[in-house]
Amino acid sequence: MLYRYALHAGLALALLFSVVFGWAATVTPLLTEANLPAYLDAVVEILNGAESEVLVMISDLRYYGTGVPASAPAEALAQASLRGVDVRVHVNLWREPWETQEDARLLLEEAGAVFRWWCDPDASLHAKVLIIDRRWVFVGSTHWTWNAMLDSVQTDLLVESPAVALQFTELFELLWEEEPDVVATHPESPWSEPLLFPLLQPPGTEVHLEILRPIIASAERSVELLVYRMARYSGMWDSPSNMLIDALTEAAQRGVSVRVVLEGGEAFMDETTVRATREAAAYLVLSGVDVRLAPPGETMHAKCLLVDGRDSVVTSANWSHYSLARHAEAGLVVLGVPELARQLQGLFDRVWARSQPEIPVAMDIGAPLGTLHQLV
User: Fold this and answer.
1) What are the domain boundaries of the chain?
2) Which of 54, 213, 287, 297 has CA atoms 20 to 30 A from the CA of 45?
3) Could you give the residue ranges of the DSSP H alpha helices within 113-239?
4) Is CATH 3.30.870.10 the right assignment for the domain spanning 8-179+193-353?
């Protein structure tokens, strides 16, 4: 028997950036760059104060040994469990676990935490969510690896709100129990402002398309996007990735300034992914969108959308078909709050300034990735 659950993601919260307004929420941006581990530091601090419960659902979690900076979150999680906090951890498993992933599992289980691998072959657990004491929520792009926390560009938000924590907890519990046929509800556009709501995407749904497309369509002056991976599909015109890319080009064609920064392709990335991102970039450039690739040696792993300097979306989802139509993803939508948008805009501008305006395109998967077309 199939069960259908509605996640009550339609909660509207009056919001002032980093200030409690009524019963609402505080939202603090955690903007990670190389040698600026904002997310890592904040996670360790909040975990050290955890009193009753910690829930983690995350795409990757590693432990590198005692005293290693990137091990600090796993160690803080283990210490929370040792002092009696109820700790449950749900981690995506791609194939066989890496040694550092197994080390993390052993560390946590020996401390008394409940650890579970997500092993669905058809849908990944790609969300990066940490819920502490049903009060604090970390959500965004950062998983618990060395590269992600110490050597990458990442965007995450720390939210203090029991109401918001409850909604993320609902998603955690449904995925933990492997409930089938889960749907997520959300406010219908057009939206009043200010407005904050969780972007909860169970596997097999297209929640990001439903939310991001009208936000982009509402743009009057500017759209800025940081995203790690992007793909456009010639044989899947109804893919949510294609539809969001079309929303960007439509905005550019009506005179909106549209700027996009994509990951340029680090050595550890598979060539198919790099090629797909560069081909999507080329398509955007030819359609009037300004595109740059993050410089070599800097992993641009953020997923952040900004519209008109007032609307912000921070999420775990890449702009590819599987991310937007298959995977479990999570984010936060904050509309009509320019204070938050300005903080995120500062990161975008820094990354934009040091990124490359050339878009190299590999013509076949077997060919080396060289600059075959200079499109800007």
Assistant:
1) 8-179+193-353
2) 297
3) 146-150, 162-176, 207-217
4) yes
